[in-house]
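2.7 Reproducibility. Because tokenized structures are sensitive to small changes in the input, we list the exact sequence used for RNA methyltransferase TrmH, group 3, including any N-terminal residues retained from the expression construct. No trimming or masking was applied before prediction.
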Amino acid sequence: MIVYGRNVAFEYLKNYKKDIRKIIIQDGFNDKKLLSALENTKFDVIYKDKRYMDDLSKGVHQGIILDVMDYQYTPLNDLLKSDAQFVVILDHLEDPHNFGAIIRTSEAALVDAIIIPQDREVQVNSTVMKTSAGALAKMNICRVTNLVQTINKLKDDGFWIVGTAMDGTDYRQIDYSGKIALVVGNEGNGMSRLVRESCDFVASIPMRGEINSLNASVATGIMIYEVVRNRK
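Resulting structure tokens (single pass, no recycling of outputs):
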């Protein structure tokens, strides 16, 4: 997997050195802090021109690219065996920037894990990693084959399932005590029918202006902190 950016590079050098295969740096790279960190490693550093870096990353690489091992997802069974109290489920989210932002908010709020489907969902990639600003390294991400079956397993483990939709109950009127699994739907289509039918509650964030919806990561952040606020 190709990842890029200075924050991501620092995160790997700090926590995931064993996963680094190769480090590629742009000619003229002058980040003294990163270069100093690289001096204390045994990695071969390859220097390339900007065109090569741009073609390889397809994004804003900030002069450094890492070739790393594929991301290791947390098995669902490991999550169920833990003392997890609050998880977020993403129902076929598509935008890697939204995914990365949700990871960042979830880590800040001490969400125990994020659950994503294996198919038709953005997976962990370099954009997600960069957008999470290092939070990915501290967050459990579970990848499952069937969301409805996973929700049923969470219910068996004592979780209440709270979905999100425009026509739900005001999110401030829902009881968030106990174990909570917050479900966030696709950016354009919301939750799938079967996932919605599996929810115990469906919450909605009231819109007061002319715009009738929020960005997925913004709405998720509001919901996450409402759950946290009610669990103090």
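The mean pLDDT is 91.
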